[in-house]
Structure formats: structure tokens, C-alpha cells
Amino acid sequence: MEQKSFGFINSFTLKIIAIIAMLIDHTGLILFHSTASFRAIGRIAFPIYCFLIVEGFHHTRSHVNYLIRLAIFALLSEIPFDLAFYGSVFQPNHQNVFITLALGLLSLFCLEEMNTKRAYVVPLILIWVAAYFIQCDYGLGGVLLIGMFYLTREMPWFRLLLCALILYTFFGTFELYGLLAMIPITFYNGKRGPNIKMFFYWFYPVHLLVLHAIAIYFN
């Protein structure tokens, strides 16, 4: 099943949009005491990341290596995440978004295999349970959002409806600003663009450390 190529936005551009939105969001949260306008712009980032996990799943040469990269950066990002948002090197009650993305990718393995092996519904449910109890960023709702993008890859209008439903049900009205992410996603052309993927992986922990250092300096 191939993504239809009628747009003008490639994967690289989507990632740039996502990291800019995320940077604005985290700047507002860490430095400006959750300024609403910053946080609203930031809602755009996560749906784009979820969409890109699905595209990565369809285009990567190795699903296992993709999962390993996400797991490695989940480990690398946990201390920066805890420092930036909790001022501590260890906060067991909330985990970084790479864990959510890794669990979402695992759920795609299960959904793919369920086409021929119904028994994969069991590990899929276990992944959902893990997402709920681990309390990773966006949690179960985030993992379901990734699965939704996988199942509606060729149904853009249905995708919009389900995205709104998941965002509202799990995160409330404010998270509906995330529906703005559907504008660039709609114009995605299925192409990769410049290949500097490790920059996007490293951006997450590094920008958190930088924002934490700025917060310490000004406080």
C-alpha cells in the first residue's frame, strides 16, 4: 500500500515543522511558564511524529534497526527529559516520547502480522497496557494515534475524524490544536528529502538540555 504522491511536502519538511513546533512548545513550558500560545503551536508536533513513524515503518530497510534506534534514544533522552521538566535526573512517573514512539512502532509490527496471524492481538493488547502503565509521554493515546495513522493511510478524511476523536478523548479540548498538523500531512508526497535523520534523533535530548541550562541560568 503506497502513499499517494500528490503533494509538495516531503518527509524532511515534515520533520522540520515538527521540531520547530516542539521547540516552541518546550520553550513555552520550560521558560515561559506554560504560555498558552506556545503550547498551542506545540500541539502540531506529536501527530506529525506519529505519522512519520508509520511512514518510516513502510519505508525502512530494517524494522528491527528502526526499533533499536528509537530504544537507544529513549534511554539517551530520559535524563534530559527529567531535568528539563522536573529538575531531577530521575522522575519515575513520566517517561519521554521516544518510549511512546517505540511502543507505537511495536504495535505496527502486530497490526501488520494480524493480517495473517490473529494471535498477534495478544501482544498488541500488552503493548497498549504497557503504554498506559509506563506513563510515557502521550501514553496509550499516543500509541493508538500511531496505529490510527497506519490503519487510515489511504483514508485521509476518516483519518482526520479519528485523529480528532483520539486527541479529544485522551487529552482534552486543548490538544485539538494538533489537528493543524493534518494540513502539512495532507500535502505529503511520500518522498524522503535530504537524509540527515540522526540530526532529528539528537535534536530531542540536546534541545531539552539546552533549555534546562537556560532555565537554570535565568533562575
SS elements, strand count: 0
Computed CA radius of gyration, to the nearest angstrom: 17 Å
**Structural class estimated from helices and strands:** mainly alpha
Mean pLDDT: 93
Which term fits the overall shape?
Answer: globular
Helix content: over 70%
Q: What's the total helix number?
A: 10
In whole angstroms, the N-to-C terminal distance is 52 Å
Beta-strand proportion: under 5%
* Largest sheet: number of strands, sense, barrel closure: none
The parts where pLDDT drops under 50 for at least 5 residues are none
> What letter string, H or E per element, gives the SSE order?
HHHHHHHHHH
Short description:
The protein is mainly alpha-helical and 219 residues long.
Question: Which helices and strands occur, and which strands form pairs?
Answer:
Blueprint: H1 11-31, H2 36-42, H3 45-59, H4 63-86, H5 97-113, H6 121-134, H7 139-151, H8 156-171, H9 182-186, H10 197-218
Helix pairs in contact: 1-2, 1-3, 1-10, 3-5, 3-7, 4-5, 4-10, 5-6, 5-7, 6-7, 7-8
Describe the protein's architecture and organization.
With 219 residues, the chain is mainly α. Helix content is 70%, strand content 0%. It is built from 10 helices and no strands. It has helices spanning 11-31, 36-42, 45-59, 63-86, 97-113, 121-134, 139-151, 156-171, 182-186, 197-218. The longest helix is centred in the middle third of the chain and has 24 residues, at 63-86. The protein is globular.
